[in-house]
Hints:
By secondary structure, the protein is α+β, with helices and mostly antiparallel strands. The chain contains two helices and ten strands, in the order E-E-E-H-E-E-E-E-H-E-E-E. It has helices at 36-45, 78-85; strands at 2-6, 15-20, 25-29, 48-49, 52-58, 64-69, 73-74, 89-91, 99-101, 111-113. A hairpin with a 5-residue loop joins strand 5 and strand 6. It is elongated and about 60 Å long. The termini are far apart.
Amino acid sequence: MKGKFVCVVCPTSCDVNAEWNETELLSIDHAQCKLAWEFIRGEIFDPRRTVTTSIMVDGGELPLVSVKTRTPVPKAQVLAVMDRLADVMVRAPVDIGEVIVPDVLGTGSDVVATRKVKHKG
Length: 121
């Protein structure tokens, strides 16, 4: 199989042509750095994304806190992760790095706060 990818590992954002079979990446061209190989292989055989969103805060000086998955989750599960987080509410105070949902949907990735929210009052 053949395809074209934009490698986003570095700021160059190379347009990379790739060729692969059922189990392995066979070749790439037009990559300006050696980091592209692993990125393209991942995009073909195990695409993952970091999920970022906001969740509600009870009793906080802010109504929402930003969160993200600590590590990327399988791309096919991104919408399910978003659905899982839609009704989550955390109680203030919230610290940066605080685990909001451990091992979200069995992905092995915790959802963590990326902002501090103090208690209202």
